[in-house]
Amino acid sequence: MDFHFSPEEEALRTEVQAFIAQEFTEEVLADLAGGKRGRGFGPRGPAIFRKIAERGWNAIAWPEAYGGQGGSRITQFLVEEEFYRAAQVVIGGGGTGTPAVLASGTEEQKRHYVPKAISREIIFCQGYSEPQCGTDLAGVRCRATRTGEAPDAHYVVNGQKIFTTNAQVSTHIFLLVRTDPQSRRHAGLSILLVPLDTPGITVRPLYTIQNDPGGPPGTTYGEERTNEVFFDNVEVPASCLLGQEGDGWAVSQRGLNLDRVGAWRYLISVKRDEDIVNWLKSGDERAQPLRDDAAVRDKVAELWIEGQLCRLMTMRSMTIEQRHATFSYEGAAEKVWAPEHGVRATEAIAQMLGPHAQLLNGSPENVQDGLYAHNLLSAFQSTVNHGSVQVMRDQIARKGLGLPKPAK
Ligand SMILES: Cc1cc2nc3c(=O)[nH]c(=O)nc-3n(C[C@H](O)[C@H](O)[C@H](O)COP(=O)(O)OP(=O)(O)OC[C@H]3O[C@@H](n4cnc5c(N)ncnc54)[C@H](O)[C@@H]3O)c2cc1C
Description:
The protein is of the alpha+beta class. 44% of the residues lie in helices and 13% in strands. The protein has a 4-stranded mixed β-sheet. The protein binds flavin-adenine dinucleotide.
């Protein structure tokens, strides 16, 4: 097995790095930081994304027929890695919704949604969790009732979603609803792709522990806010249905597995280690005694090894996707290892830096504008969102190790 990138891939990485060095000025980075915070990209964002698209780096692995480049998943990985590391932007080919449209959509849906998702005219947020069901997602109560006959058939949606991250800057919600009122659990669910400007939808902010408008750009965990989304007799055309009616569980699970894979997903957790190593090498006078400390050197080396494992697991998942093979436990394994590594790294960094690590931006004694303090507040949430690590472990036990479901 050869883990090296090919000379062509390495050349592409160098080209992307040179682009970033030239184009990602302080002003551009500040504008892009708003995207990570859930505030939307600043005025320079669209021009930068256009330049990236002109170079053919957007959605590298997605089919050409829908606006992608038809390239390899590994090339996609490499480009994603560079852009996420530099500015925490996800360059097409990842994220919520579109991978599921590619996996389960009709030809018409793929032609409509995918090119617009690549150009960021369409942005999906994920409407799974409800106040009574997060882990226990099969308990979804949000209802969609089909009325009328083709070509005028439509769904009327009523209910509530919670923790709908980025709903305030998205155009569509990838919505898990119960279409069969008699059904229970996993049966009778469907996915609707609902435009968020449809009358009857209300988005309300739900602020997180990271709600600090003056916080440093570059914290990698979570946003300042997530949302509650309410549906009050919301009418959408039946053409918004993704996959078959009643097959929503399978459609959503396929989408979730694809959503969990990507260089940016592992970097959310691993960027911590890279940041602290860069700081230890920096000219900050507080860094020197630490970088000479054997215990610190030992710890950062250990974190680096763990981080490399996150990266290799991601690359394995990408090759599974490249081969169009099916995931069984691999996405779940990544979803346990990377976030838990992130928590371990954040805590270890806090121990290395001592009390300074807990100082937020605004405090003169802080380190890197309070970056590590923000991460301390928020690393834990990545072990819960997108499916908690406990639930992922159960999936690994069943699908990876073949253990039967526990007796009730
Ligand atoms: C910052 C953030 C952003 C999010 N963004 C989105 C989003 O965009 N869209 C969306 O749909 N959802 C989103 N979520 C919701 C997220 O998916 C849920 O929080 C998660 O699935 C857990 O559900 P819950 O909050 O209802 O907790 P619960 O289901 O009540 O679980 C609480 C704890 O109990 C554990 N637990 C529960 N059942 C079991 C079991 N059977 N065995 C072992 N342990 C168990 C869980 O692992 C967890 O640790 C987000 C959450 C957060 C924190």
